[in-house]
Design goal:
The protein is mainly beta. The protein is built from no helices and 11 strands.
Amino acid sequence: QLQLVESGGGLVHAGESLRLSCAASGSDLDRYDIGWFRQAPGKRREGVSCISRTGNAINYIDSVRGRFTITRDNARNMAWLEMNSLEAEDTGIYYCAAGPKYILCAYPEFGHWGQGTQVTVSS
């Protein structure tokens, strides 16, 4: 059974950077597409970025494109979300998720979830 553990969240000021990590165990990560999602208080969980199992397909939501970078290393069973120029609107709990294949980078496409890591950006 695939298990995912996120780390790297924290409290930063606007304009600063964070790097989130997602460590997988229990199964080979190269069997899955990976997504990073976030959920702000009172809002729905939204897909921030997704990457295919080979890394050939990558998607970002418009609000983070050019600021965030998703990467993965299947040999290390790891994925990352590099977040630069953070804004207060980026605040939320960030989740790493894995699924067989994504099309929309949407919540229903992913069946395995980590516990989340809190990102707080103060303005």
